[in-house]
Amino acid sequence: MRRRNSKLGRWLSVDPLADKYFGWSPYNYVKNNPLIFVDHNGMYTTSYIDEEGNEIVPETKDGNNATVIIPNSKKKEFIDEYNNTSVLFRDGVATNSEWIQKYGAMM
Fold first, then answer.
1. Hey, which end of the chain has fewer CB within 10 Å, N or C?
2. pLDDT tens-place string over residues 17-30
3. Phi-psi region for residue 65, left (φ > 0), alpha (ψ -120 to 50) or beta?
4. Residues with Cβ < 8 Å from 15, sequence gap 6 or more?
């Protein structure tokens, strides 16, 4: 777990999973996009892509460390369900496990 000094507005340690994200600074938070991402637990992300390899929705921080392919036939339905899911639940392990079973296959 990382510690943050809120008085200084700085991290006191690097992200323990920094070696998994080579393109990002070990001191960044939520891939430098705090308006979209929230890092509740510092876990791995899950990416959802279509059959052509395009990202469908922002990565979720559920801890799966997976890339999930959503078939084009289920893409619209998946996006609708994602958009109708509360932001608080999008990063949940149970929510992502359900989406993976219902819509796609892990790579």
1. N
2. 677 777 777 666 66
3. left
4. 2, 21, 26, 27, 28, 42
